[in-house]
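Page 42, continued from yesterday. The earlier attempt failed because a stray header line got pasted into the input along with the sequence. Redoing it now with the clean sequence only.
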Amino acid sequence: MALADDKRKKPVRNPAPPVARERGGWFAKIAPGVHKLVAKRETPENLWVKCPDTGEMIYRPDLEAALWVTPAGRHMRISPALRFAYTFDEGQHRVLPSPKTPDDPLHFAYGKSYRDGLAASRKATGDHDALVTAVGEVSGVTTVMAVENFAFVGGSLGIAVGEAFIAAAQEAVKRSAPLVIFAASGGARMQEGGLALMQMARATLGIEMVKDAHLPYIVVLTDPTYGGVLASYAMLGDVHLAEPGALIGFSGRRVIEQTIRETLPAGFQTAEFLVERGMVDRVVTRKELPTVLGSILRTLMMGRDRLSAA
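This time it went through. Structure tokens are written below.
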């Protein structure tokens, strides 16, 4: 028993730490630093972009040089920052401050907090909400421009979007400048309920302010524009332009077909389909848009100046 106790009390020595192996092996020993030159370089995940129409992989710098228009002609969705850069003269503009609004007035939750969803969208896009406004010149005409970001909660219409639209209309009247909006939305924001629907009427009042000042209000419909946005400020312009292939409507194709129990024609709700039926005035490519938009603005502002002189 004594012998067993001695063995039990005998301290156990910690094993010697393993010897750190030099990284790089024999090649690093005979040519220090050379392995850094031949190390595998990581390729950015977004270096190639897949075309939604053809499945073709497009080199991202080439797509950026083409203003995010694929070789097949698909006009990809772009951020407000890129829209401003592509449309204003030399890309020069000043972003207008976003009005302060409550983030979650109804304390809405849908599996997760609506407030958390807003925070995630702000982090992902860098925008305060779905509508960003700026002022600059288009073909030399000072213009207030509003751009909806579909990447921000589907570009949905809520209190913040309504307030930003009203602020843009007031800025246009203040500067005696035309108001241009690039619409891209899935409709009213369900997380704000009736408060979101009220923005349809409020935006209409903002348009009336612009028109009472005899200033142009131009709408550019981009992919997609649906629901309450189309039912309000996206259909009240003096001129309606659209990008090629943009889907435009109140309800989606599948919902309509299930409701009327009929198959809709090919191309239904596309910009090309709607321009033939008078809902859209002209389909314009992204490259041509600044020139076409500038020509329209100069013409309408010239008419306003003549009306004021009279």
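Notes: Confidence is low (pLDDT under 50) at residues 1-5.
Reminder to self: strip header lines before submitting.
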